[in-house]
Amino acid sequence: MELRDVGRRYGVRGRWVLKDVALRVPRGTLLRIEGGNGSGKSTLLRLLAGIDAPSAGRITGRPRTAYVPERFPAALPLTALGYLTRLGRVHGLGRRAADRAARDWLERFDAGRYARTPLRELSKGTAQKVAVAQGLVGAPELLVLDEAWTGLDGASRRVLDRAVLERVAGGGAVVFVDHDPRRLAGECGAVHRVEGGRLVDGSAGPRVRTERVRVEAEGTGPLPERLPGDPARERLTGAVRLTVATADSDALLHALLTTAPPWHIRSVTAVPAPEEPHR
């Protein structure tokens, strides 16, 4: 798959969110996309997945693709098993094979007991498991993951890590965005960064070290007194800003998303570590 001089803007006179993007996605590769909030990372992933069409340039050679969005539309009038089976059929599986694959992925994510549960009745964490499973059920040739690990428990994150590596080992390509800089570290064939609407090679030059993550969230209920990592708290208008060690960020997000009622995550930002003094 190849992107040539691709640009994307919303509206005829809207600003360019992305411009002059050139990117090759070979088979059997794992690509990480980085960038600040609002930089265009999600727009790039939607272009790769075919959800959005480019406003300029060309995308050629797109293989059979699955996309896991940052937010899963869990209000669909289907059960977890029914939804996954339909997605398997979309990817060309027969009815029995689709049913078998759907049940297998639910079991792998420890969600088999929710097979007959309507999507709208699932908890946030279980709905995210279904969201990830729908991207894997058809063994796509290109898997696009937009913050897919957010909201998963630790065991499920490890299942997804293994599933990504299995797809790559099987000749598929995976492109992902994740707030944790350690995610699949050392496994990526390339790291690219979106800056100023343009794609740059993130593997060239020094990488920014991150020791903390800043989470902005809003909710209608009380914020739990005890949160993973004991984050620093800062009250905002209608929201709260939590700063926590990177190692505790996944657990913090899971706690916010699974509290009752769940908190909505506005943004997740890596906080650069202070530069070491020159000697």
Care to describe what's here?
The chain has helices spanning 41-49, 80-90, 95-108, 124-136, 154-169, 249-258; strands at 2-9, 16-24, 30-34, 56-60, 65-68, 142-146, 173-177, 190-195, 198-201, 210-218, 232-236, 239-245, 264-272. It has 279 residues and is α/β, with parallel strands linked by helices. It has a domain at 210-272. Helix 2 crosses helix 3. The protein starts with a strand and ends in a 7-residue tail after the last strand.
Secondary structure layout:
Elements: E1 2-9, E2 16-24, E3 30-34, H1 41-49, E4 56-60, E5 65-68, H2 80-90, H3 95-108, H4 124-136, E6 142-146, H5 154-169, E7 173-177, E8 190-195, E9 198-201, E10 210-218, E11 232-236, E12 239-245, H6 249-258, E13 264-272
Parallel strand pairs: 3-7, 3-8, 5-6, 6-7
Antiparallel strand pairs: 1-2, 1-4, 8-9, 10-12, 10-13, 11-12
